[in-house]
Amino acid sequence: MLREPHQILQDVFGYPEFRGNQEAVIHHVMQGRDALVLMPTGGGKSLCYQIPALAMDGLTVVISPLIALMQNQVETLNELGITAAAYNSGTTPEHRAQIHQDLKEKRLKLLYLAPERFSAPGFIEFLKTLHINLFAIDEAHCISQWGHDFRPEYLKLNKLHDLFPHIPRLALTATADQQTEKDIIDRLNLGYGTVFRASFDRPNIQYRITAKQNGVRQLVDFIQSEHPNDSGIIYCMSRKKTESIAEKLKEKGFDALPYHAGLSPELREKHQQAFIKSEKVIMVATIAFGMGIDKPDVRFVAHLDLPKNLEAYYQETGRAGRDGLPATAWLAFGTQDIFKVRNLMNLNQPQDQLQAERHKFNALLSYCEALDCRRIHLLSYFGEQSEACGNCDNCLSPPETEDTTEAAQQALSVIYRTGQLFGVTHLIEVLLGNETDKIKEFDHDKLAVFGVGKDKSRQQWQALFRQLVSKDFVAQDTDGYGGLSLNENCRSLLRGEEKFFSRKQPYLKQSGGKDRKQVQFKSDADQSLFENLRALRGRLAKAADIPPYIIFHDKTLLELVFQRPQNLQQLSRIPGIGKNKQEKYGEVFLELLTNEG
Length: 597
Ligand code: ADP
Ligand code: ZN
Fold this sequence. Notes:
Helix content: 40-55%
Structural class: alpha/beta
CATH class of the largest domain: Alpha Beta
Oligomer: single chain
Mean pLDDT: 91
CATH superfamily of the largest domain: P-loop containing nucleotide triphosphate hydrolases
Radius of gyration: 27 Å
Bound molecules: adenosine-5'-diphosphate, zinc ion
CATH topology of the largest domain: Rossmann fold
C-alpha cells in the first residue's frame, strides 16, 4: 500500500509544499532506485527518506554516524507521531529487546543505526529477516577519506549493495566536493544511481569578516549589539581559549559554555544538552563540536581563529540558521592568525598533500581578503555561479579601495633591508620613523626606508602586512623570534609587474546595524506575543524534557504571530503544525492566541 507523499507532507509534517528537489528524490527512491542527494545544511534532507518511510510498507533503515543526531531525530519523529527507534552502543539491553520486539511485530517505520552495527555478529542475518524498504545513508561523506569527517566504520557500508541487492540506497550529504562525491558513488556502489544536486547557497546567512584588533572585545560588541538573546557557536583553535572566552562572556552576563575534547565525556554531554535545550546558550568550542547538532535556531557562528580551509569554514558557518531565519557568520582575523595555521602545518607529510593543504588555506585567505561579494567567492569555490548577494559585508557596505602597490613595495623593502629578522611591530616602527630603543640599537634609523611610511597609520600598515602574508608573499620564521622573510613569489610585486589593492579603511566597518536582515515585528504587541509563545513552548519542552524546537520551530511561532489563528482549523494551516502536533499542542497555543489576539 502506498500513501501519497504530498498528503504525508501536509498531514504529518504540516508543510504545504515540497522544497527544491525533495519531491523528485522521494519519487525516485519509491520506485526502488538508488540516489545521492547533495543539499546544504537545513535544505531538508531528512524528509527525502522520512516520507518514503511513511509512504511505503516496511521499515526504513537510516545509517547515521552520531548517537546525539539519532536521538534527536527519533525525538523529532516521535513528536510527529511516527514510530522510530535508534539502535547504537548506548542502547540498554532492555531497550534492545523492546526494539527487537517492535521490529518483529512491524511497529517501527524507521530504525536509526550506527554503522558499526553492521560488524556485530548476526546483525546482518537479523536485518535480512525484516521487510526493509530503503537504506538511507546520512552524512554519506563520512565514507570518504578526502572529507574531513572520514569514519572507517562507514567503509563497511560498501557491502550493502551485495547483501541487499534489491533494496534502494539513498546517500545524503551537505559536504561534497567533486572528489568526495565520486568517492561516495564508488564506495557505496551507486553506479546506476542518480545524483540530485541542490544549490549550496544559504541565503539567510550573512557573511561578515573583520580585521582583528582586540578580538574578544570585537566579539563581545558583535554579540551585544546584534545577538544579545540568541544562541550561537564561537569557534576557537585551542581548548584553553574556549575556556577563557566562555569565562569572559559569562562575566558580561551571557550564558556561555566551553566545549572541547579535553573535557570529561559527562561534562561535554552536559554542555551539549544545555545548548540544545536552551534558546540562548552560547557554545565556545573547538571544532570537536558541531557535527550531529541539528539545532535549527543557532543565530550566529563566530570564528576567533581561522579555519583550515573553505570547506571547514562553510561547514562550521552552515550550522547557523538551519531554520531559514536570518543568521550571521562572523569572523575576525589578523596576521598572527595566519601564521598560526601555516606554522601548524605538518611538514613531514607527503609533498603533494602539504601543497594541497597550503593551497586550500590560501583560498580561504583570499576569501577573507576579498573586496567584493563574499558569496560569489564561496559558491564559486564549490563550483556554482552566482550574483552579488546583497547580504554580506562587502555587498552591504562596498569597501573603497586604493592602489597601494608602492606601500606594499616599501613593506617588502623594509623586511629585506632589516635582514629578514624582525617581526611586524618593529618593521612598522621603522616605516613610521619612530626612534625606539630597538631601532637605535640596530641602526635602523639610518636605513633609506626609515620613516617613508609616515603618511599611513599604524592600522593601515598592519592591514597591509596582513594582506602580504595572506598572499603568501611573506613568511614567518618558526625559530621563536617570528621574524618575517620574503617568499620567492613577491618578486613580481617588487618589480612592479603586479598591482596591489587595499581597502581605504583598514578597520573594516561593522556592517550589521540597520542593514542587517532580521525578523521585523510590526508592533510591540506582536513582539510580546512572540515572547509569550516562546515562553509557553519553553515550559512544555521542559516538562517533556525535549528541546523547544522539537515542539515548534521559531518559524512556526512567527507564523502564529503573523496569522493569529483563532480556531483549530486555522491553526492547522500554519506551516509546521501537522495533525499530531495540532492534537497535542493546539488547544494550549490557541488559548494563548485567543487571549492575546
Ligand atoms: P538537513 O538535514 O538537510 O540539514 P533538515 O531535514 O533537518 O535539513 O530540514 C531543515 C528544516 O527544514 C527542518 O526543520 C525541516 O522540518 C524543514 N523543512 C524540510 N522540508 C520542508 C518543506 N518542504 N517545507 C517547509 N519546511 C521544510
Ligand atoms: Zn554579497
